[in-house]
Amino acid sequence: MAASASGPQTLVLEEAVRLACGRSLESVEVAYETFGTLEDAGGNAVLVCHALSGDAHVASGPGPAGSERPGWWEGMAGPGLPIDTDRYFVICANVLGGCSGTTGPGSVDPSTGERYGLRFPLVTIEDMVEVQARLLDSLGVDRLLAVVGGSMGGMQALAWASRYPERVNAVVAAATTGRIGAQAIAFNEVGRAAILADPAFNGGDYELDLPPAEGLAIARMVGHITYLSQESMREKFGRRLRDRDEHAFEFVSEFEVESYLAYQGRRFVERFDANTYLYMTKAMDYFDWQPPKSMLPRFLVTSFTSDWLFPTAQAREIVRVLLERDAEVTFAEIASPYGHDAFLLETERHGALVAAFLARALEDGRCLGGAL
Questions:
Q1: Would 2 be classed as within a structural domain?
Q2: From residue 367, how far is each of 330, 361, 364 by CA, in Å?
Q3: What is the pLDDT of residue 204?
Q4: Mean pLDDT confidence for 172-189
Q5: What CATH number has the domain bearing residue 241?
Q6: Do 302 and 197 sit in the same domain of this protein?
Q7: pLDDT band for position 63 (50/70/90)?
């Protein structure tokens, strides 16, 4: 069966989704995009999983209403790039609980006709993977050449290896962890506290045109600090003042780094939902990866030297556990000043590793007659 590239699409799942929390969602919509063509043998499918603030639009291509817009992983996914959409059939879906087309707290509860808000059930990384598996079923993709993801997307890639090892040939887990530590949980909690304390939050039942903007902006500012590194912040901002030569001696944003964080907060409020931020960070906090005991796929695990959110030690722990289970593992630590964001920015060096890993997985699959 062959499939053509697509712009934004939505699938309505035919059966209810049973969640780890014990509740079920009777109706789930999944927003997704595909890039490239699925080979008749079905051996070139690559699922890309996005991080906390991402969506289904991983590569440049048709956007909403036929517009053209860049993808969130420019330089990594696209024609001739490491995740080559001329070579692979690439699928990317907005996660369950998201705010970019997939059912989440901003969706309408069919049983009440009102938005879920905080009545939406808590979801886990594994719940997101279950919905992705249902999507692949509908697309006729029985087995994946690879699952690729960074940060929260890397958690999903790891969860795929545990939940559906028989459906995955290879896993790329970048700048991620099998379980986040107390410091990362603490930063997530500060962000959630800022949102919950915003007077406009209204117990999660805020108006869409009057969201808890201040709380969400602060949450983004706190989160964004963890994505950077001391080196990159020193190089980019130092102690430079913005639009002034002397201190104001007032409580205003006067350093360049302050203005930058405020700008990032404002931009985030324009495109993201506060309730979704609560749900996504909680799902990351809950993640506690247990690798499969058999049928392990091959792995590429990458980390970055200046990433202090999910440091190299946590990547090495993933590798250690996999090697104990006799998995085939390639590990690389990449020198980079960009902090956690390096998995999005270091597309040349990181991309070369990913490209070679995927190409070898594809070639090995074809040597087996196309049956991965």
A1: no
A2: 21, 10, 5
A3: 98
A4: 98
A5: 1.10.1740.110
A6: no
A7: low
